[in-house]
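Long-time lurker. I teach an intro course on protein structure, and each term I like to show students one example going from raw sequence to a predicted 3D structure in token notation. This year I'd like something fresh instead of my usual example. Would anyone be willing to generate the tokens for the chain below so I can use it in lecture? Attribution to the forum is fine with me.
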Amino acid sequence: MGLYATAMETIEAYTGLSPAAFFTISAAMVVVYKIVCSMFVDPEELDKKPIDARSSIATNQPAPQPQPPTIQEPVQLGDVTEEELRAYNGSDPNKPLLMAIKGKIYDVSGSRMFYGPGGPYALFAGREASRALALMSFDPRDLNGNLEGLSEHELEVLQDWEYKFMEKYVKVGQLVGTDQAVNGGKVEESGKHD
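-- Reply from a regular --
Happy to contribute to a lecture. Here you go:
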């Protein structure tokens, strides 16, 4: 009992807290630490079992080395229709996450937390989002490339978005075969008329 009493007196002497308050605060700090750390860990890593170094030593096998995350190279798609683009909306985790601005298709897989399922911009994935970005709209009716009727300011907003995408993401293709194709901020009919 002497060790316990000494430990409790030491805690009170060094911290100025009662032992109950000290342990309560310590437990709260551990919980906060775990919560904050979980914000920066890949959810898939949380499901993996921790590597037990002792079992590796006992079996004389080297401990498995952690593998670096595999970064898939963007796949160049070339010409894609809007219907084909919709398959790249994040519903299939084996496909890249794509979206189009002004007819240019970008691989936004690197920002899956924003454009992937459940992300704040998920409705833009797999779609031509020029009008929605120009209007800063989340209305599904604005998910198209029609720039007709947009103000000068809205076109500037869209241009800013396009510059951000050109800077951050790889262009992997362009939209074709749509009723309306975007060309330099203007809308042109791309279908053939007899």
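Some talking points for your students: The chain has eight helices and six strands. The mean pLDDT is 80.
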